[in-house]
Amino acid sequence: MVAIACWASAAWQADDTRLRDRFYSDMDHPLSADPPASGAEAEEQSLRSNTAGPVITFSPARQTVPLVFASPHSGRAYPADFVAAARLDPLTLRRSEDGFVDELFAAAPHFGAPLIAATFPRAYCDPNREPWELDPAMFEEPLPVWVNTKSPRVGAGLGTIARIVSSGETIYRKKLRFAEAERRVRQFWEPYHDQLSRLVENTKMEFGACLLIDCHSMPCSGYPKTSSTRSLAEFVLGDVHGTTCCGYATDFVERALAGMGYVVRRNDPYAGGYVTRHYGRPREGLHALQIEIARSLYMDEARIERSPDFAALHHDVTRLIASLARAAAALIGGRIPNRS
Fold first, then answer.
1. Would you say 112 and 60 are in contact if contact means Cβ atoms under 8 Å apart?
2. Given 28, 177, 215, 247, which residue has the most CB atoms within 10 angstroms?
3. Of 299 and 39, which is predicted with more confidence?
4. Domain that holds residue 300
């Protein structure tokens, strides 16, 4: 099935409403900053699961550019058993979300590029980690020897199965069984990467190269000032210090955003996560660039709601997508196929 996300202008409003109703009606419920009314009932009302599966791909009728956009951390379909096992209220449980990032980049299919989005939350299973980055202190039994228990992400409590939300609070009431982690990896992490891998490989096959844009947002407490006298960085571009994406593409995105008046920084403090490092292999024609957007530009972080500035940022992100669509093939050495 082909679903085209058309969310960049009033002319597309009908498709916008239809797609959002179909895929997010059970997920997209703004939460109040007030305490929940009562335990399980409030959790059930505030965090609802959807039936769309672990990943949604919004594809153009025909892909015309060597671009793929991905939003691994915007999922907001919370399984009921996960909510029940958490010691946090629904609003706090959502602190790790890159809220509404999938919507900011939703115009990608209009410009000929697919957009993939996880529907599950990163607090439940993080697709921007290796599949087996697990904290042994979280589990009832010893973990298999092949599990990565020593990564910096695990040490920070933010492994594949996170111990904490991004604001630092512990998620679970009690320890988990390894079988639960394995189930989440098999049913959520793997389907996401199976689909992303197909999109990237098919794009390279069709165009000779692929530029993957991995889309994220950063909390106001997590992004740096560009200097002691300048404002906070509003976008951080991560190409793992020039190793996962050709310099022309990173330069192009930086210039485009700076030309719109945004303060842009590279690789500090976000150089790129698992997705960027795993898929970014420029010598093979596969380029990956992570984009982090300051949440203060478009949302109320305390309430996890879109702010009045959302539309303006959405417009600028759409301009960036349009510019990349025009330039991508030239930037990464791809080709536009000759179609009769």
1. yes
2. 215
3. 299
4. 10-332
Please compute, for residue 190, the number of CA atoms within 13 A of its CA located in the half-sphere on the CB side.
8
Q: Would residue 337 count as lying in a domain?
A: no
pLDDT tens digits for 127-136?
999 999 999 9
Within-domain flag for 149: yes
Percent of the chain's residues with pLDDT above 90: 78
Can you give the length of the chain in residues? 340
Closest of 134, 92, 84 to residue 302, by C-alpha: 92
Q: Are 233 and 265 in contact (CB under 8 A)?
A: yes
The token pair at 316 is 């600028």
With a cut of 90, say whether residue 204 has pLDDT above it. Answer: yes
Give the 3-state secondary structure of residue 91: helix
Domain presence at residue 2: no
**Maximum C-alpha span of the chain:** 62
The pLDDT, as a whole number, for residue 232 is 84
pLDDT tens-place string over residues 295-309? 999 999 999 999 999
State the DSSP H helix or E strand holding residue 216, giving kind and residue range, or none if neither: strand 210-218
| Residue of 59, 63, 67, 108 whose CA lies nearest to 210 | 67
Token digits of residue 194: 């199976």
CATH code for the domain of 99: 3.40.630.40
Residue 3 lies in a domain: no
Model pTM score? 0.84
Residue 94 to residue 295: CA distance in whole angstroms: 14
- The count of domains in the chain is 1
The amino acid that residue 206 corresponds to is E
The two tokens of residue 324 are 């990349």
Question: Comparing 118-122, 177-181, 218-222, which segment has the lowest mean pLDDT?
Answer: 218-222
3-state secondary structure of 266: strand
